[in-house]
Structure of Sec-independent protein translocase protein TatB:
Amino acid sequence: MIDIGLSKMALIGAVALIVIGPEKLPRVARTVGTLLGKAQRYVSDVKAEVNRSMELDELRKMKDTVEGAARDVQQSIQTGASEFEKDWAAATDMSTPEPFEPAVVVPAYKHPGKNWRLKRGATPQWYKSRSGVRTKAQSGAARVARYRPQKFH
């Protein structure tokens, strides 16, 4: 970009003050600022467009290489599959019958029968009773009635 130092900026400002005048200088400075802002936005948009087009070209090249690799893999799989089919056909040839082996009987799946509605905590019941943890929910009125001091007659 343009290399303008502080001294050059002061010289340009002094000349503008003399030529334009102090009344019109703020309006001209605002106009120049907006024009410079628009120019910078335009330049940044052009740079972004160029970068996008370069990235698009790179992605196309990458796509071509990936497609070529995929074709190579597909061809190797097809040749391997044809070799496998030949080997399979040779191995499963029924011209020489083998003795029959009974299949292994696998028992049917049986659900464990857990009750999903029953909440089971990880803390053992004996620990809860020893440490004084309440295991039963009790309403406020029932709690008051239970722990109300007994009257002595």
In short: The two ends are 105 Å apart (CA to CA).
